[in-house]
Amino acid sequence: MIRKTVARRFLAATALATAGVMAASGSAVAAPATVPFLCRVPENGVWTEYGSNRVFDVTAPATVQAGTKFKVTYAQGPFTLNPEYQQEVKDIAVKINQPAGAHLVSLKLTGGSNLGNSTRSVVSVNGKLTLRAGGPFYGGTTFELPVIEAVYTAPAGGTLVTSAGGTGFGDTGLSMKRLDTSINAFTSVQCYPDPATPVQLSSTTVQ
């Protein structure tokens, strides 16, 4: 059973901001983009759906020469947890679709703040980046996940785009587990970009 609501309270607004990028050619371009997400969380045994906007700010070169390397930097703005509804959160995962056709050369994580002893990692699988932070994170705190720096080799031609990952509740783009104090157990928060409003995060033309 699913109960639908709009702009529920369980997740603090998540901003994704990014650091600057240097490319093999062309000028770096960054333009914040608001991505509407569809989310759900179990509440008293019932899935409650809600909408949540996420702001991405991916920086990538406007143009790049075929066969040359270029860098894209992905970052997230701070998470601030509402202690009334998010007393404890763990196992955060954020997914981003990489530029299709580009060859991934390297990945690294930099920065982040107030992460404590949280594990953190990034992997690339089937053209998608997944950034994970194990937590735990507690209500009332503010923290920032690490920045992802990715280096690619441009293909022979085409337009390379990035976008928020996820296609459904079975393939989430943003997920985490929150402590449900009514049952004293962790439950899943699941979100994916609204397919009715697709948003392109960056675009690079191969010359």
Structural features, described:
The protein has strands at residues 2-4, 14-15, 28-30, 33-43, 46-56, 59-61, 63-64, 69-74, 79-80, 88-97, 103-110, 120-125, 128-133, 137-138, 142-143, 147-153, 158-164, 174-180, 185-193, 202-206. A hairpin with a 4-residue loop joins strand 18 (174-180) and strand 19. Strands 1, 2, 4, 5, 7, 10, 12, 13, 14, 17, 18, 19 and 20 form a 13-stranded mixed beta sheet that branches. It is elongated. By secondary structure, the protein is mainly beta.
Q: Residue ranges: pLDDT <50 for 5 or more in a row?
A: 1-24
Distance between the termini: 51 Å
Please tell me what the overall shape is: elongated
What about the largest sheet?
A: 13 strands, mixed
Whole-number mean pLDDT: 87
SSE arrangement, N to C: EEEEEEEEEEEEEEEEEEEE
- Radius of gyration equals 17 Å
The secondary-structure class comes to mainly beta
- The number of helical elements comes to 0
Measured as a percent range, the helix fraction is under 10%
How many DSSP E strands?
20
Strand content: over 45%
Secondary structure elements and their pairing?
Blueprint: E1 2-4, E2 14-15, E3 28-30, E4 33-43, E5 46-56, E6 59-61, E7 63-64, E8 69-74, E9 79-80, E10 88-97, E11 103-110, E12 120-125, E13 128-133, E14 137-138, E15 142-143, E16 147-153, E17 158-164, E18 174-180, E19 185-193, E20 202-206
Parallel strand pairs: 1-5, 2-5, 7-20
Antiparallel strand pairs: 3-6, 4-5, 4-19, 8-16, 9-15, 10-13, 10-14, 10-17, 10-18, 11-16, 12-13, 17-20, 18-19
